[in-house]
Structure formats: structure tokens, C-alpha cells
Write a structure and sequence with these properties.
The chain has about 325 residues and is an alpha/beta fold. The protein has 12 helices and 12 strands.
Length: about 325
């Protein structure tokens, strides 16, 4: 076993915990009772943080580790990590892109179909033994619909490929226009919402996107509009969404992410025309193992070769 000491901030899949603990001296944050005292005594020995996106890795936390070299994140999104502070401290941050792209895109399409065709409500109706007469016709459809994708990165493009095969018209909004797609580009989210029948959010979290899907955007989406969110819960103003659904400002919503996970507002749970999933976009054994392996490989590559495999944009450097 290496003498390199790592701190795991969140419980991660057994594959990750087993592999990391066999190679490094691993400390598990959730097993430490007096965290402040432990950090005061042991933080200088920690060279890497292994995290899962649940515990905030903010500037003050990063600064507690004077010899920190790498923060290895399980997942593509890393808005729980202050990557800019990591960059200032010359700490590399890695994530796990690509290996979950197709799984999350599958989930997005499945959630969109479930929501548009009210499939969850139909299953509940059947399980309640109501099939004595025909099921009421669903208000929504995917025929001749326009899909607006907010966030056309790897996952957004994978969703687009699937939606094209389904015959949907596609447009998107991004921070910048993408050269490798033929979809129409809208320079504002408001313009995209006005064009769309279905607004599908794949945007990352963070201060720049917090609550950008607000009452104005939902009103622009309209009374036949559907909101799908598989990106980050913070992107949607949850109170505004609840009001829009209650007042039928929009037709329905399908959500895999929420603003204060694992808390889901009772108002959303009570609505029959909403589909709710427990943040399972990448949650298959196959894909979570692939994510875990990439997280392990990032640590190995860093400590063996001084080069991260998938560094985030803010910290693209090799080790000094």
C-alpha cells in the first residue's frame, strides 16, 4: 500500500472504496466523529480528495489542505467544488465525462416520453385496478413537437441524436453556438422557450445558471409546454415551477433533479401530471462502475505519471 493519504468526503460505490483503499491510505470523512479536530491534526497529510458531489468542497475547505494535489470527482457535474479556488491553489480537479453520456441521454428520452404521454399516471391507474373502462386520452404527445435543448454539451448532443430519430424538430441555447450541429441556435433561453414545445435542461449548476428557468421562461414555454430537467435542480426556480404547474401555465414537467436533494416538495409529489425520478440519470451498475473506474484511473495517473486523464476546464495542467 502506498503511503499517499487520501480523504473520501462522500460514500462512493464499493468498487471505488475497495480499489482506493487497497492502493492508498484512505480516510472516510463520514466515519470521523470530530471532523474539525481530525482535520486540524491530519489535513497536512492529505494529498487527494475523493468526492461524490454531495459534500461541498468550497474555498475554505480546500485551503485546509496545504499539500493537496488533486480533487477527483465522481460525476460530470462539479458545481459542488470550487474549481476556481482549486486552480488558485494549483490543485487539479477531475471528473468523469463521456462514460455516462449515453446512459443519461437514454434517461432523458425515457423521462420525456413518460411525461408527454403520462405513462406514470397510467401505470398508477392500472395498479389501482381502474381498468374497467378505457384509460383517458393523454393531453400530451411527441408528434410534430419542437424540442429545445438548454445545454448542448456531450449529453445534450446525445439527446439530440435520439430525438432526431424520433422525428422531433430541435433547437438549442448554449453559452456559445456549436459548429458541429445543424440545429437552430437561440442566443437567449427566453427565445428558445418561446420556440419550444418541450424545454429539456441539461445545463450545469452553479451561480451562472441558478434559477435561470424562472417564471418568465415557464410562461414563454406556454400552456401546452413541457419542462424536462436532468441537469441540475438549481437551474430551475422550484417555487416558480410549482406555481406554473398548479396554475396550468405549462402542461407538465418531468424531473430527475431537484433544488434541495433529496428533499422533493410535497406540492410536486401531489401532482398527477408531473413525473419525478430520484436523480437516476446515470444510475445503472454498468455506468456507475465505469464512472468509478475513471475516477480511480484519474488518481492512478496523477500519482504515477503526474497527468490527469480528465481534468476540468479550470485546472488543465499536469503535476509540476
Amino acid at each position: 500500500m502506498s503511503e499517499i493519504q487520501l480523504l473520501m468526503t462522500d460514500p462512493l460505490p464499493p468498487l471505488v472504496q475497495s480499489a482506493v483503499s487497497k492502493t492508498y491510505r484512505l480516510h472516510r470523512m463520514w466515519q470521523i466523529e470530530d471532523k474539525d479536530t481530525w482535520l486540524g491534526e491530519n489535513a497536512p497529510s492529505i494529498r487527494g480528495l475523493v468526492c461524490g458531489g454531495h459534500s461541498p468542497i468550497d474555498a475554505s475547505f480546500i485551503r485546509r489542505f496545504p499539500n493537496l494535489e488533486i480533487i477527483a470527482n465522481f460525476g460530470v457535474g462539479y458545481d459542488s467544488i470550487d474549481a476556481n479556488e482549486a486552480a488558485r491553489q494549483h490543485v487539479v480537479v477531475t471528473n468523469t465525462p463521456d462514460v455516462l453520456t449515453e446512459e443519461v441521454a437514454d434517461t432523458a428520452i425515457g423521462l420525456m416520453i413518460m411525461t408527454a404521454r403520462e405513462l406514470s399516471a397510467a401505470e398508477r391507474w392500472l395498479r389501482a385496478r381502474n381498468w374497467k373502462t378505457g384509460y383517458p386520452l393523454s393531453a400530451g404527445t411527441l408528434r410534430n413537437r419542437k424540442l429545445g435543448i438548454f445545454g448542448l454539451g456531450r449529453i445534450g448532443k446525445a439527446i439530440g441524436r435520439r430525438a432526431e430519430a424520433m422525428g422531433l424538430k430541435i433547437a438549442y441555447h448554449n453559452r456559445s453556438q456549436q459548429a458541429d450541429v445543424s440545429y437552430a441556435y437561440h442566443s437567449t433561453l427566453l427565445a428558445l422557450a418561446q420556440w419550444s414545445d418541450i424545454l429539456l435542461c441539461v445545463a450545469p449548476g452553479g451561480a451562472a445558471t441558478r434559477h435561470v428557468v424562472n417564471a418568465e421562461i415557464l410562461s414563454a414555454l406556454g400552456s401546452d409546454g413541457i419542462l424536462i430537467n436532468i441537469g441540475r435542480g438549481s437551474v430551475v426556480d422550484e417555487a416558480a415551477l410549482i406555481a406554473a404547474l398548479q396554475d396550468r401555465v405549462i402542461l407538465s414537467a418531468g424531473l430527475d433533479v431537484f433544488e434541495h436533494e433529496p428533499h422533493v416538495p410535497e406540492e410536486l409529489i401531489a401532482m398527477e401530471h408531473v413525473v419525478l425520478l430520484p436523480h437516476l440519470g446515470s444510475a445503472s451498475v454498468h455506468t456507475r462502475n465505469a464512472m468509478g473506474q475513471l475516477q480511480i484511473d484519474n488518481l492512478s495517473s496523477w500519482f504515477q505519471n503526474g497527468s490527469p486523464l480528465t481534468p476540468v476546464a479550470e485546472t488543465p495542467w499536469p503535476r509540476d
